[in-house]
Specification:
Layout: E1 11-16, E2 19-22, H1 38-51, E3 56-64, E4 75-82, E5 87-96, E6 99-110, E7 134-135, H2 148-151, E8 153-159, E9 169-174, E10 177-179, H3 186-194, H4 197-200, E11 210-214, E12 216-221, E13 230-238, E14 243-252, E15 255-268
Parallel strand pairs: 1-10
Antiparallel strand pairs: 1-2, 3-6, 3-12, 4-5, 5-6, 7-8, 8-9, 9-13, 11-15, 12-15, 13-14, 14-15
Length: 272
């Protein structure tokens, strides 16, 4: 059995100069040599956070996960395109020695301070369930020694669970640092769990050897994340051709944050 002392440092990555070295905590559920979508998304969030100028707010983050992200050293490259005085775009790429493995874009807006708002009634958030309700996230299909969604994430479900298809809602948080020895910013914390909108919204029947795998993560923000807990309330649908869409309303303890959308394709895997 794994012991804490035999595990890698309790972080998704360690830093060596400009390079981020992934630990086993980044591992995804389908391949032992590829990451879950959460860690590369969080790493791009770190690059976005570092590029923000005073007063800028992140309004949208779109991340393309077109192929498996390998467990190899990588670095973040961020390029700014200033559209106007109050609007800017960031192009973000994760680079390995072999080239680009993931890319994304962020829309940044420069605010002008508080504005008067009318009072509207907003849906109440489900309360954070107690510790004993934590879902372990383990199954025969996910029996790797370390895996991101089981060992680096805490999930407390308010409806559904990992194994139940259909709409689910859960409070989620990272339980590791993003970079060993460094504080993790709230944007990276949010992007680390944003990818879970896809598995929590599944419409595929269990036991069929099929799942819907997302190829992107699109986050549109109405507020500024504070974390560390985020509530994901999911809904999914899929066409007869096997093309799916996951839509997630997400919030943190401070209130509603925005909407996550993810495009999905059918993935066939070996049943145990």
């Amino acid at each position: 059995m794994d012991t804490e002392s035999s595990r890698p440092e309790h972080a998704l990555f360690t830093r060596e100069g400009d390079w981020c070295i992934p630990t086993a905590y980044t591992t995804g559920p389908w391949r032992t040599d590829a990451m879950h979508g959460g860690p590369p998304s969080a790493l791009m969030g770190l690059g976005i956070h570092a590029a923000l100028l005073p007063g800028e707010q992140v309004a949208r983050v779109s991340i393309d996960l077109e192929k498996p992200v390998p467990l190899v050293p990588m670095q973040t490259q961020v390029t700014r395109r200033q559209v106007s005085r109050r609007v800017a775009h960031l192009d973000v790429r994760l680079l390995t020695e072999g080239g680009v493995v993931a890319s994304g874009r962020a829309l940044l807006l420069l605010g002008q301070g508080p504005v008067p708002l009318i009072e509207v009634e907003t849906p109440e958030l489900p309360p954070l369930p107690p510790t004993e309700s934590v879902a372990p996230g383990s199954s025969s299909a996910h029996d790797l020694p370390l895996i991101f969604h089981r060992d680096a994430i805490e999930a407390r479900f308010t409806t559904g669970d990992w194994s139940t298809p259909g709409p689910s809602s859960a409070w989620m948080r990272m339980t590791t640092a993003l970079i060993a020895g460094e504080d993790t910013n709230a944007l990276s914390q949010m992007l680390a769990v944003a990818d879970f909108g896809s598995p929590l919204s599944q419409r595929v029947q269990p036991g069929t050897g099929q799942a819907l795998i997302n190829v992107d993560v699109n986050v549109t923000l109405a507020g500024t994340p504070t974390g560390p807990w985020f509530c994901l309330q999911t809904q999914g649908d899929v066409s007869d051709a096997g093309i799916g869409l996951a839509v997630t309303r997400f919030s943190d303890a401070a209130g509603f944050l925005g909407v996550i959308t993810q495009s999905q394709i059918v993935y066939a895997f070996a049943r145990s």
